[in-house]
Amino acid sequence: MSFVADLRVVLQGRDFKRLFGTRLISQFSDGIFQFGVAGFAFFSPENQTTALEVATGLAVLLLPYSVLGPFVGVFIDRWSRRQILVVAPVVRGLLLLVAAGLVAADVPDPAFYAAALGVLGVNRFFLAALGASLPHVVPAERLMAANAVTPTSGTVVTFIGAGVGFLLREVFGGNDAGVALLLVTSGLVFGLSALVARTMDRGLLGPWSDPDKPQARQAVRSIVGGLADGAKHLVRHRTAAATMGAMAAHRFFLGIATALGIILYRYYFTDGDPEAALRGISLVLATSGFGYFIAVIITPYATERFTIERWVPIALSASGVLTGVLVLPFQVWGLPIAGFLLGVAGQSVKICADTTVQRDVEDIYLGRAFSIYDMLFNGMYVLAAALSALILPANGKSYLAVVIVTVGYPVAALAYRMITTASRARAS
């Protein structure tokens, strides 16, 4: 298992262990927070959740990462990253206290969502600082291993945090007071990451002083042009662009499947019982998280056996066909299995996309390429949820939604295969 071997190697560094601990604590807190927001938005006994509210909730959870993503680097490269890791948890904790107070006071939902957007905006800076700090605590020869370990571990810990959030909700209750306590707990846990970050030297994580660096205002103005240049560069590297497009397609169809599953559990499977619905969707979340972990293990072997260019369409096509088989009967047992399979396939495609972009895109364009990738990753998911708001009936039972997912995945696989085959023929 290369993951275990990579983890053992990078944990030999003292400073890496501190940065890694900061990440794990923060992403564990994220899991609790995201579960609390999802429970409030989708499964509150006081709310009659609709597909439009699902789209709104997902937009709140994800859009800050896409909108702020290209811009945070300007400031991460100018502010002390160690100080960001120390100060951001405090700011986020205060915002979580505000959000908890708004929930407890039963204020209108838009006020709560505004506070949640603030929390996630701060978190975007925090995660960007973590990523930019990694080369400062890992020798160059171990950087690839560290890059393989940290995102996967963070994702797994986020799922664990969501599971703990579920258990805490059972203790605190599903009413507004219970949600408020979840948010406070998330803030307290996140604060622990600041204590770990403080153990690192202030100048350890950079950035280094550069007198030729443009002013922040000038750098912000140049970002849009830089993204356009990055997009043009990707067009010239069609295999990387196609794999990124495959990831975007997966996120779009997964967004439809997510909205479908939430509404089905909320009404069709449980007759409107929010607690039963939350338990059902939590099971799907757990099986999906297990699928993510399995993908980390099997993808290196699958791509070695089939190559990336073959494994990606296999994963996409299997996602569509098996989702149709499992979900079209509209039986409660089908969704957890579908969640597991989509977790395996989706994480497999993501690993392939990450690898292809890093392999094919020139280093000078790599940051801009991943900024575009980040925008697509979250933006397509939210776009799909918005489409679901238009097509899902009140109880969620939509044959049209399942057909879109079932047919869309193989079509995306075919498009990917055609582009990569043509690109390989042109190169030869």
Automatic annotation (TrEMBL):
This is MFS transporter. It is found in: Cell membrane. Keywords: Cell membrane, Membrane, Transmembrane, Transmembrane helix. PANTHER family: INTEGRAL MEMBRANE EFFLUX PROTEIN-RELATED, MEMBRANE PROTEIN. The chain crosses the membrane at residues 24-43, 55-76, 83-105, 111-132, 144-167, 179-197, 252-269, 281-302, 314-333, 375-392, 399-419. The keyword Acetylation does not apply. Its main location: membrane. It is a multi-pass membrane protein. The keyword Ubl conjugation does not apply.
